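Quick one before lunch.
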Amino acid sequence: MGQKKLHLKTDLSMRTEPCPQCQNREQFTARSAQCAEDACEIWIECACGFDPTRESGLYRVEDVWGSLDVPNILTALEVWNERITTRRRGNAP
Ligand SMILES: [Zn+2]
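Model of the zinc ion complex:
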């Protein structure tokens, strides 16, 4: 539905987990897609296409309009961090 290219500034980038595929922590795309009649999902995808929420949409941020505004993007980035850390702790492929 929507997408927005992100280039994280240094202070935010330092708090962002690097992509497990390409180690990038600056270039991302925020995406949104409709998941129900009155709800949209928002998630973060790496520049290389890696999306830690792909296997389960459960972790994506839900928003009525799916607007890619700053609060939603920051929440989606928190999910990214959370997912990457969990993968690293668990049995990541
Ligand atoms: Zn990547």
